[in-house]
Amino acid sequence: MSEALIRHEPVSDAPFVAEGVCISLAPPMQRHALRARNAEDLEGLLKVKIPRKIGASHGGIMCLGPDEWYFRSEVGTAIPTGEGLPVAITDISERSICLIVEGPRASEILMAGCPLDLDQFAVGQATRTIYETVEIIVMRAAEDRFHVEVWRSFSAWLWMAMTMAARH
Amino acid sequence: MILIHCPYCDEKRPEIEFANAGQAHIARPLDPSGQSDADWETYLFIRANPRGRHHERWRHIHGCGRFFNAVRDTVTDKFETTYKAGEPRR
Questions:
Q1: pLDDT, tens only, A94-146
Q2: How near does any CA of chain B get to the CA of A136, in Å?
Q3: How far apart are CA A89 and CA A86, in angstroms?
């Protein structure tokens, strides 16, 4: 006798729309933290190209640090565990949610709380940074669309802060 | 806002992404139990605290997550240089 698990999201399911910007919750996805001294070990295991430069992203894998990557994939994708290899692959799917900020004012809304100059951010570039006091991972998915990965427990506050910035 | 050059990211990033981690180049004694109390106290607690040029450890905590070393002037708060952990003192 099992009851269906109901997904409870910490922020609104309905997108927030204001002048020149739309903030919405991305559908659930798999997230993995990849750690390895040699990116070749991960490439051989996952059979994908791993970006080497910090800030670069390729095929859902963002390079966050010299030995750290953030891998997002569709729910149900089989990810090997890397047992026996000098790598660490950790499932962190439910640690964070993704907010999609899009529209001509997207970078302006993010720069209201993030000290980086996101207008200089290239499409596909990704980095861990900070929004006011909350740690986020920001990725420029398109010219006017950013993905913001934030820990679940911080997301209600971030939603409030970004929608407030968007109202101004 | 001060911009700090992260030697791993190889770009200047806002200071709010960084955390100070105390004086740099303090090696842990290889044989702690062989230390006298005075030596151990020196290792644990006694720091240079100079007025001027100071070697410090910093961590790009809200970025690549790496520790690195920096030379900062404690009077002007200007960063002279930053370099990767493990590299010789500058």
A1: 999 999 999 999 999 999 999 999 999 999 999 999 999 999 999 999 999 99
A2: 8
A3: 10
Domain ranges of chain B: 3-29+39-84
For domain B3-29+39-84, which architecture applies?
2-Layer Sandwich (3.30)
CA–CA distance, A56 with B88 (Å, rounded to integer) = 29
Give Cβ neighbours of residue A82 (< 8 Å, ≥ 6 apart).
A41, A42, A45, A88, A89
Boundaries of CATH 3.30.1360.120 in chain A? 16-28+94-167
Check CB contact of A88 with chain B, cutoff 8 Å. no
- Measured between alpha carbons, how far is residue A56 from residues A82, A85, A119, A126 in Å? 23, 24, 16, 6
Residues of B in contact with A116 (CB under 8 A): 13-14
CATH class of A16-28+94-167: alpha beta
Can you tell me the ipTM of this complex?
0.88
- Shortest distance between the Cα of A122 and any Cα of chain B, in A, equals 14
CA distance A127 to A137: 6
Q: Whole-prediction pTM value?
A: 0.90
User: Chain centroid to CA A82: how far?
Assistant: 23
Per-residue tokens: A61: 């894998």
- The residue type at A111: M
Q: Which residues of A touch B66 (CB under 8 A)?
A: 65-66
